[in-house]
Amino acid sequence: MKKKFGRLSKAEQEAVESEYHLMKPEEFDEVMAEAEFHTPSSVRLPLEMVESLKIVAKSKGEPEYQTLVKRWIEERLQQESHPDAA
Fold first, then answer.
1. Which residues, 6+ apart, have CB-to-CB distance to 64 below 8 Å?
2. Using CA atoms, how far apart are residues 3 and 30, in angstroms rounded to an integer?
3. For the chain, which has fewer Cβ within 10 Å, the N-terminal or C-terminal residue?
4. Are 5 and 45 in the same domain?
5. What is the pLDDT along the chain (86 residues), one digit of tens a residue?
6. 47-59 and 65-81 helices cross at what angle (nearest 10)?
7. How many domains does the chain have?
């Protein structure tokens, strides 16, 4: 699914859910085997920082500031993993 579930309309979410409910267990297992694993995490940020992040994200065309933060963290981890490349 190209769109994230949370960004779908209520009707679209219900349609996706009913597709899953109609699947045979083997089919569902195949779909779930391809799913990416994520670890839920939270970082507490000051309100002013979150507001600034939202403004920057919007100016860069990001739908959510969390997407921007995730990309920044990925970029920094890449830099730290390969310090000679910078």
1. 57
2. 19
3. C
4. no
5. 445 777 788 899 899 899 889 999 999 888 888 888 888 889 999 999 999 999 999 999 988 999 999 999 999 999 999 877 65
6. 90
7. 2
